[in-house]
Amino acid sequence: MTSHRTYHHGDLRHAVLAAALDVIATDGPSALSLRDLARRAGVSHAAPAHHFKDRAGLLTAIAVEGHTLLAQTMADTQDLSDLGVRYVRFATRHPAHFQVMFQPELLRGDDPELVAAQARTSRRLHESVAAGNATDPELAHTAAWSLAHGFATLLLTGNLDHLLGDRTPEEIFRATVGLQPGPRS
Fold first, then answer.
1. pLDDT in tens, 90-106
2. Measured between alpha carbons, how far apart are the two ends of the chain, in Å?
3. How many domains in the chain?
4. Domain extent for 160
5. Does 40 share its domain with 98?
């Protein structure tokens, strides 16, 4: 007799999101299929569509959740360097969310929850930049985001493994932010 694990706990939305994050973490967002997630949850292939409608809806829900977690991670600091460290820490702790959040071609860009969640994370970064009295706040926002996002992306793709050694990604990021350009010739 074969045993078949089925879905019983009553929170299909959460179960599908958790399974999707597992798939994305191991195989990337392109490997995601609602039919496979339904099979994993032990429900009919149509059941996930009741919560997400389609693949883009599921990925949008993941991005909303990611932006919410990121905004929480970045709360309670005005220090731009610390904000970057928290951004990098978020990416390492939630790599599947991070993979999805910044790929607009995968998401429903006009989803009201997504727009609001993206605005919260962007506002958080803008507030820290404003506290630093930058001459050009928009340019400073772009530079700060580029540094943290680029570092996190390089880290997650294994391109900074040679730098890690016995240091944490946060330590390396702080050191990177503290670098001063050398004198010009």
1. 999 999 999 999 999 99
2. 78
3. 2
4. 54-178
5. no
